[in-house]
Amino acid sequence: MKRFTLTSVIPVFAGTTIGAMVALAARCGQSRGPPNLQGCFMLRLLAVPALLIAAPAAAQDVTDPPSGSLTVSGGIDLVSDYRFRGLSLSDKDVAVQPAITVSHDSGFYLGAWGSNIDAGAAADDVEVDLYGGYETGIAPGVRLDAGLTYYWYPDGDGAFGPSDYGEGTLRLSYMLGPVEATGTVAYAWNQAALGDSDNLYLRLGLSSGIPNTPVTLNASIGHSDGALAPGGDYRDWSLGATATFDRFTLGLKYVDTGVRKTGVKAIDRRYDATVVASLGFAF
């Protein structure tokens, strides 16, 4: 991660290159000729993180410097399967996932994360998660993170009606010696995209680094109940490891769910057990 006192150099870049990127993303697919689907996908996926860089930079250019400094962190991951709470949202295909977060010394943060998805021929092929929140230490070894995420599917409304929805999240992390335990409660309230229903997700995660190695072991178990859960409710679990080398991270994890089978292979394959490989680059 790099710490910035944002100067006029970044706003100039934000007003030219980033502005052009966002404009191209907005017009993508509107020409009369055949659309370049791969080009549209990449432009849309990168436009929102680019705006997050531009916004604080532009604000810095026209206002007094903030009392604290900003931290800009991010990266891009390549995963063999995009699994969200155990479910494959890329239909077991490879996914590219860029992300960026702008955080302040006070504990407030704002960010965006994106991925290609495969929800069917009529649905959109991009997911963008816009998130913000506040993280702070509340006791020795204990941290609290309260946030809000907006799941945005560009052009998704044209496929099956309302598709975007919001979700509030509360995380509590505690260090148990060399092991970090994190409990998560995520609640999506009644919304049109959820069929005017709600969803509750509970998760417990454990992670621990192996001394004198770049390897970290991870395990998790979760339970989803509501509109986002196939069959009304299900459990998911995972076990894996990551190895970090400077800015690169290699990952491998086993993922499975307790979703009840439908007997339709094209549907059940999204819930089947799998091993997910990942390669990430951070800045």
Please name the CATH architecture of the largest domain: Beta Barrel
| Total number of beta strands | 15
| H-E string | EHHEEEEEEEHEEEEEEHE
Question: Helical stretch count?
Answer: 4
The overall pLDDT average reads: 83
Give the percentage of residues in beta strands: over 45%
What general outline do the C-alpha atoms trace? globular
**C-alpha-based Rg, rounded:** 20 Å
Give the distance, in angstroms, between the N- and C-terminal Cα atoms. 6 Å
Helix content: 10-25%
| Number of structurally distinct domains | 2
- Name the poorly predicted regions: 1-18, 31-35, 55-65
Q: Which CATH C-level class of the largest domain is it?
A: Mainly Beta
Q: What does this entry look like structurally?
A:
- This protein has 283 residues and is an alpha+beta fold.
- Helix content is 19%, strand content 51%.
- It has a twelve-stranded antiparallel barrel.
- Strand 10 (179-191) and strand 11 form a beta hairpin.
- Helix 1 (9-27) packs antiparallel against helix 2 (37-62).
- The longest helix has 26 residues, at 37-62.
- The termini are close together.
- The relative contact order is 0.12.
- The model is unreliable at 1-18, 31-35 and 55-65 (pLDDT under 50).
Tell me the layout of helices and strands.
Layout: E1 2-4, H1 9-27, H2 37-62, E2 70-79, E3 83-84, E4 87-88, E5 95-104, E6 108-116, E7 126-139, E8 142-152, H3 157-160, E9 165-176, E10 179-191, E11 197-209, E12 215-226, E13 233-245, E14 248-257, H4 265-268, E15 274-282
Antiparallel strand pairs: 1-2, 2-5, 2-15, 3-4, 5-6, 6-7, 7-8, 8-9, 9-10, 10-11, 11-12, 12-13, 13-14, 14-15
